[in-house]
Amino acid sequence: MSQITEQAVLGKLQNIIDPDLNKDIVTLGFIKDLTISGGDVSFRIVLTTPACPVKEAFETEAKKLVGEIAGVENVQVVMDAEVPKGRGVAGNMALPKIKNIIAVSSGKGGVGKSPVAVNLAVSLALDGAKVGLMDADVYGPNVPLMLGAAAEQPGIFNNQIVPIEAHGVRMISMAVLAPPDKPMILRGPMLHGVVRQFLTDVNWGELDYLIVDMPPGTGDVQLSLAQLVPVQGAVLVTTPQTVSIADVRRALKMFETVSIPLLGIVENMSYFVPPDMPEKRYDIFGAGGGRRFAEEYNIPFLGEIPLGMEVREAGDRGIPVVIAEPDSPQSKAFRTVAEEVARQVSIEAMKPELVVLTRAK
């Protein structure tokens, strides 16, 4: 009969600390399906994001630590992920199948907010998450074009709109519900109705993340979203220049006013490297404004996206750059931003209290 005990295995695994949550993986309930058979030990480590940057390190350390127990001959570790459910009490509308709602916003237009939202959504999907993208920028709904779905029409099932799926992302937009040349002339109550319809009348299914591409500024759509649903957090998009930073400052204050946490700031169009002169770098819109802003307000700096023709060309073709040019500097930067966003969502989800999940034995 094996002398290896569950207590001994878990005692070893308690030495592995999650760097973001500052608790060990046993206390956090990450260890599942622990089985011991003779000298064989197997278990799953269930992390909070499919794109966890310490996944390989956790697996290596777990095998090493458990392998030190007398009598252990083989250690099998399966790495898994389950995105935690975010804020569930704010707002007045329940969306139990959507774990986390993330608003992508900016204080002004022209900073590339929609390309950031699109590539963020597709990057999270590429990492294995279930992702939806709600184009709430009703005055300039360009998301379908960037996803190559501008000519598609959503279906209807059980009196609900079935979102269009493109590049692994479920999407809805006014652009696929109204003629392409029809101007969006909507007042406050109508905007509130559109946001509500996109949330309740669309059959999103089960989602880890619903990314909401917000209109520029601090208007009715932002307030409606905050009033209707528990938004897990906002991602602010800016360029390095002073004018953009001044406007995103207003957006930050607006989200603070409606009690939506700030997941962090993305600096878009940070610099330009000419394709024919890779040794040169031009700070067309200034340098470091986004990072300084993040430090000033003590919010995470999620990353900087270099300016490049790749993003524009990919968006015009309807293929997001993270798919069209996966090895480009822009694509790599978007993937890093997506990892950081997922990380911040997990941290926010665990903030109210560190919930110890029941271990599967």
Description:
46% of the residues are buried. The chain has two domains: 6-81, GMP Synthetase, Chain A, domain 3 (2-Layer Sandwich); 101-350, Rossmann fold (3-Layer(aba) Sandwich). α3 packs across α11 (329-350) and α5 (188-200) packs across α6 (220-228). An eight-stranded mixed sheet has the order 8-9-5-10-4-11-12-13, with helices on both faces. The chain starts with 5 loop residues before the first helix and ends in an 11-residue tail after the last helix. It is of the alpha/beta class. It is built from eleven helices and 13 strands. Helices cover 34% and strands 21% of the residues. The chain has helices at residues 6-13, 55-67, 113-126, 143-146, 188-200, 220-228, 242-257, 289-297, 309-317, 321-324, 329-350, and strands at residues 31-37, 40-47, 74-81, 101-105, 131-135, 155-157, 160-162, 164-166, 169-173, 209-213, 233-238, 262-272, 301-307.
Which class do the helix and strand fractions yield?
Answer: alpha/beta
- Number of separate structural domains: 2
**Rounded Rg:** 22 Å
The helical percent reads: 25-40%
* CATH homologous superfamily title of the largest domain: P-loop containing nucleotide triphosphate hydrolases
Spatial strand sequence of the major β-sheet: 8-9-5-10-4-11-12-13
The CATH class of the largest domain turns out to be Alpha Beta
Spell the H/E element sequence: HEEHEEHEHEEEEHEHEHEHEHHH
Could you report the average pLDDT, rounded to the nearest whole number? 85
Largest sheet, in brief, is: 8 strands, mixed
- The number of helical elements comes to 11
The low-confidence parts are: 353-361
- The total beta strand count reads 13
CATH architecture of the largest domain, by name, is 3-Layer(aba) Sandwich
Shape: globular
Task: Give the percentage of residues in beta strands.
Answer: 15-25%
